Amino acid sequence: MPNLNRIQKIEPGQTFFVTKQGLEEIKREYQKLKEIKIIKTNSEGPKILHSDDLDPEYRDFQEDLNLLESRLASLEYILEHNQLIGPPAEELKNTVQLGARVALEINGQEDEFFIVGTIEADPSLGRISNDSPVGRALIGHRVGEEIVMASPVKTSYKIKKINYSA
Fold first, then answer.
1. Residue 47 has pLDDT above 80, yes or no
2. Is 26 exposed, middle or buried (0-12, 13-18, 19+ CB in 10 A)?
C-alpha cells in the first residue's frame, strides 16, 4: 500500500514513480475518500448552533474534513503527476534501475530488495526507495559489483542477481 506519510512535502513539478499495483491502490483510496467526503458533508455535519470556538463537535468535524481534503489533494496530485515503473530499456536491463528485484549479499548475508518509488517504499517488506541511500547507491550497478557504504556502519552490498519480472 502506498504510504503518503513518507512524503514530507509535495514539491511543484514533482513526479512520483509508482508500480501498476501501487497506482491502482492510490486510485482506490482516492475514490473511497471522495465517497467518505460526500457522506460527511451531506449528512454527518453537526448542527451549527454556536460559533466554532464554543462548539467542540463542530471544530472536530472541521478538523476531520480538513484532513480528508488534504489527503484527497495529495492523492489527486499524485494521480496527475506519476510515472509508471516499467522495465528499463534493453541496454539498461543488466543494471539496477527502478523496478528491479535485486538479490544481494549484505555483509555475508543473503537478502533481496525491490527498488520502488518513495511512496511505495517499505524496508520491512524489502521495498526500498530509489531515493534512499541504499537505493541511490545500487542504481546503475551490475551483477558482481560491490558497493560499500560507511554510514553509520560500514556495510558491503554485493549484487548477485537483477530481475525485472513482476
1. no
2. buried
